Amino acid sequence: MAQASGKLRWGILGCAGIAFRAVIPGIKQSELGEVSAIASRSLEKAQEAAARLDIPRAYGSYEELLADEQIDAVYIPLPNHLHREWTIKAAQAGKHVLCEKPAALTASETEEMVAACAEAGVIFAEAFMYRHHPRYRMIREIIAAGEIGELRAIRGTFTFNSSGSTGNVRFSRDMGGGSLYDVGCYPISAARLVLGQEPEAVTVQAFFSEQHDHVDMMASGLVEFPGSVGLTFDCGMWAAFRNTLEILGTDGTIELPSAYVGPTDAGANFFVTAKGERREVEVPVVNHYALQADSIARTVLSGEPIAFEATDAVLNMRVLDACLKSARESKRIVL
Known about the structure:
Layout: E1 8-13, H1 17-29, E2 33-39, H2 43-53, E3 57-59, H3 62-66, E4 73-76, H4 83-92, E5 96-99, H5 107-120, E6 124-126, H6 134-144, E7 151-161, H7 179-195, E8 201-208, E9 216-225, E10 229-236, E11 238-249, E12 252-256, E13 270-274, E14 277-281, H8 288-302, H9 311-329, E15 333-334
Parallel strand pairs: 1-2, 1-4, 2-3, 4-5, 5-6, 7-10
Antiparallel strand pairs: 7-11, 8-9, 8-15, 9-10, 11-12, 12-13, 13-14
Helix pairs in contact: 1-8, 4-5, 5-9, 7-9
């Protein structure tokens, strides 16, 4: 039960950069959430984080935080290979779970996590914050209205260059490193969201870098959807920064220059070209991390239907499994 303030009380498992930069500030800006505790395997590190971010309690182990009865939900930004273990432990402790993407290392691991949460009667959500931005609802409405005609193709990109950083968990095979896991999951998720369908097959080419523990530092692929619609995408951790989405129809296009991350101001606007005319669509200035936290809180506190079912994480991981298999075996994989 949430405290008398009516807010969802969050605990943070780990001191990852994404938690500091985005998710914790987002929860703090949300209407229905508050950050009550943070844990690290180093008590000193947790205490420093708590002091810096004005978090009431700090713990020197994840188990201690999960034992805290004044925590309703946890956010898990741990390295990918730890998602399964700590999601299941959180569920068994009766905590709702917001798990950083990708949900796990495989679809089967994700199924275990979702099942554990269902058995414990807690919510499981994958942290694809971009989906909570109202512009994606607006985009789907434009498509449904037929403004750009029948959909023919989607193109997505998400690349950045961190190749020179040392000790980066994204460069460890055992810890679930690689660009498909880290950023390729976004255009795949977005295409599934826009189309409202699941892919039929994938073909992916990847650059597995010897300098980075043989993880995929760049990948390019084709994801085949029903109706002969394809997502072409590329993702990388050793390339110039881009995060775009283009939706092509018979009569026009929708372009998102900043599709998944980036500014909360006018930089989040998108463009529609139809019948030869191009217009900029203004979107509300919002924090999609805060919207994500509020969406989960409304489900927990008020019983509102969850925005994205837990099984969505399993479905996205099935596509990622196929992408990695295709890249490693150099062949088309039918889903």
